[in-house]
Each structure stands twice: as structure tokens, then as C-alpha cells.
Specification:
SH3 type barrels, Elongation Factor Tu (Ef-tu), domain 3, six-stranded antiparallel β-barrel, five-stranded parallel sheet, 7 helices, globular
């Protein structure tokens, strides 16, 4: 009997994953990861509640259950990077880094101490291994597909992972949980970054990073408002600018930031050309499966839940130059670009620099110190 150590989060997806694996004849061990230890504004640590739900589900399914503390690993490998990038004015994606460093790094290493044949996660994604290479595929439910968040994990780690619900629709997962009377059947899905949850994002950042107010400039160089600190804003953002009564009356959007001058640039109109890029440079590409040719075409996402965009990619060592066939709105340095061919995810890289669609707005391109 093959042994699987499953990451149980206390949610319905990992709960059903455990049940399906057991039905398929695996020896299943549930493992809850504690990655963060902080109470919310009401004094509640949600990880405590989630761990209890995971434990109850494990009891319902009659599988062994353990907890493991990865707080130090998370602080060293994920949170410190998160703060460092925000300090530079960039917008990192800690969930992608958490998958790479914790769930498919520290977790896998720990699971091997149980003599596990595989680890498993409740992600909406799929994998297959052919001719000694492992491939990452989109989840069957394209509305819930989480391959974007997995695009920078190690292929070797992926080869040891199972995704028991990757072939299911979310509605089917809920039905399975209800039919088996799991206590998580109707539990609300978690949202937001794991260590922030439902809390105010800017208030959270202000606990760890110093903010310095500055000017918001229009494309004409006019001061149209003040910002509360560059780290509170990301490219394409509309909410929270506090600019009113000036210009054309159209909404204002963040078009650029300059950490050297502590300046935020804003433009009016959702489709203003300053919000678009024709290409970008990306760094630290992680390939899942064989590398592609030096130049190739595929599709790409620069954010989750985005429609695929057609691109031409040129490899530059471990980095990429990506040209968009149609201008891309609000691509953001620090975020991740994931590459696809059909349902296969080729891997992902970190967006480093943008090439503006209209060169006259190049001065708005982010300058990071």
C-alpha cells in the first residue's frame, strides 16, 4: 500500500482530497502546517480553528493526524522576501513563494521522514509523468484552476505530489463532502494572503515597514494628490487614490512609481496607454518539464484569473524577454508570469521590468532602489 502525506488546511478541498485518497486505497496521513502565528484584530488566531477542523476531519475519515510548525522556515524563506520586495516598491506574490518553499519544499522534506511515497495537496491542478519528466496541467475546473500559483515549484517535487481533486469541479467537491458528512462541507473558502487573511492589507504592512507620504503626479507633472506610502499602491490600482475634482472627471489609476523620488504617477481613464506594456523582462525562470527553444510562442498569465494572452518568448539565460501580441494592462514588477501551452503550464518567472506600450510614458516605469 502506497503511503501519502496530505497537507490538510482545515478547508473542504484538502478534506475531500484525504477522503478520495483513502477510497483509492492509499495509506493516508494528514499533516497540518502552521506557518504563521499571529492573532487578528479580534484576538483570534484562525490557524487554531483551521487545525481543529482538520483534526476533526481526520477523525471522521479515520486517518492519523499531525501538526508541524514551519513558522521559522516561512519567516526566513517567504515573509522576509515579501517585506524586502515591498520595501523596494514592488508587488510580490507570497502564495507562489509559499508553494515553492514551504508546501513543495519544507513539507516534502518533512513528509519523507514518514517514509512517504507521495505528498498530496488540495489544489485544483493536475500532473502527469511521461518518459521520466513530470508536467503540470491546469485543473479540470478552469474557474478554480490553481496552476498559476504552482508555476514556480520544482519539477522533482511535483513528481512526488498527487492532486486528488484536480480532475473535479468545485461543485463536485462540495457534494462529495456533504455526502460523506464532513464538517468542512459548507465551510467558506479562505481568501487573501495566508498571513493577512481578512485584515486590512495596508494596516498590516504598516506594522513592519516604514511608510513615507509623497506626491501623486499627473502625466503633465502636476501634483494632483498625495499618497500614504508607495508600498500601499500597485500598478493599475484605482481604489484609494483620493483624487477628485481635477482633470476630465474619469477615474484615476496608478501608472507608475519611483522609489528614488517617492513619487506616484496616476493617469485618467481605464484604457489610458500608460497603463499598458508591449513586453516585459522576467527573471529566475523555473521550468516544469523540458525547456523550450530559445525563441517560442505560447500563452501567458501575469495574474491569477486572467485570460491567457498570446506571447512570443525569448530566453536570455535563466531570464526571459516576453512580447505581447496585444498590449497587456497593468503587468506588475514583482508579480509572476506563468507560461502555458494548452493545458500544460511550462513554468513561471518573476516580472522584473516593463517595456511601455507608448514610449512617451517610459518615465513612469517603476524605478526600484
Amino acid at each position: 500500500m502506497k503511503r501519502v502525506v496530505l497537507g490538510m488546511s482545515g478547508g473542504v478541498d484538502s478534506s475531500v482530497s484525504a477522503g478520495i485518497l483513502k477510497e483509492e486505497g492509499y495509506e493516508v496521513i494528514g499533516l497540518f502546517m502552521k506557518n504563521w502565528d499571529e492573532e487578528d484584530e479580534s484576538g483570534v488566531c484562525t490557524a487554531t480553528d483551521d487545525a481543529l477542523d482538520a483534526r476533526v476531519v481526520a477523525h471522521q475519515l479515520d486517518i492519523p493526524f499531525y501538526t508541524v510548525n514551519f513558522e521559522k522556515e516561512y519567516l526566513d524563506r517567504v515573509f522576509s522576501f515579501f517585506l524586502r520586495e515591498y520595501r523596494r516598491g514592488r508587488t510580490p506574490n507570497p502564495d507562489i513563494l509559499c508553494n515553492r518553499e514551504i508546501k513543495f519544499g519544507a513539507f516534502l522534506h518533512y513528509a519523507l521522514q514518514f517514509d512517504a511515497d507521495f505528498i498530496a495537496m488540495g489544489h485544483y491542478a493536475q500532473q502527469k509523468t511521461e518518459d521520466g519528466r513530470t508536467y503540470l496541467l491546469r485543473g479540470a475546473d478552469h474557474n478554480k484552476d490553481q496552476s498559476y500559483f504552482l508555476c514556480r515549484i520544482n519539477e522533482k517535487a511535483l513528481s512526488r505530489c498527487l492532486f486528488p481533486i484536480g480532475h473535479l469541479e468545485k461543485s463536485d467537491v462540495r457534494v462529495w463532502a456533504e455526502e460523506h458528512e464532513l464538517i468542512t462541507a459548507k465551510k467558506k473558502d479562505s481568501t487573501g494572503i495566508c498571513f493577512i487573511g481578512e485584515r486590512d492589507f495596508n494596516a498590516f504592512l504598516d506594522q513592519f515597514l516604514e511608510t513615507k507620504p509623497g506626491n501623486i503626479l499627473s502625466e503633465k507633472g502636476e501634483i494632483v494628490g498625495t499618497h500614504s506610502g508607495l508600498l500601499h499602491y500597485t500598478l493599475g490600482q484605482r481604489k484609494g487614490l483620493g483624487i477628485g475634482g481635477v482633470g476630465t472627471g474619469e477615474p484615476w489609476f496608478v501608472a507608475g512609481k519611483n522609489t528614488r523620488e517617492n513619487t506616484l504617477y496616476a493617469v485618467q481613464g481605464e484604457n489610458h496607454p500608460a497603463l499598458y506594456s508591449k513586453a516585459l523582462h522576467a527573471i529566475e525562470m523555473t521550468w516544469i518539464g523540458p525547456k523550450e527553444e530559445i525563441e517560442f510562442t505560447c500563452t501567458a498569465k501575469v495574474r491569477y484569473r486572467q485570460q491567457d494572452a498570446e506571447v512570443k518568448v525569448t530566453q536570455e539565460g535563466e531570464n526571459l524577454f516576453v512580447e505581447f501580441l496585444e498590449p497587456m494592462r497593468a503587468a506588475t514588477p514583482g508579480q509572476t508570469i506563468a507560461l502555458y501551452k494548452g493545458d500544460r503550464c511550462l513554468g513561471g518567472a518573476i516580472i522584473d521590468r516593463l517595456v511601455p506600450y507608448d514610449e512617451q510614458y517610459a518615465y513612469m516605469n517603476p524605478v526600484f532602489e
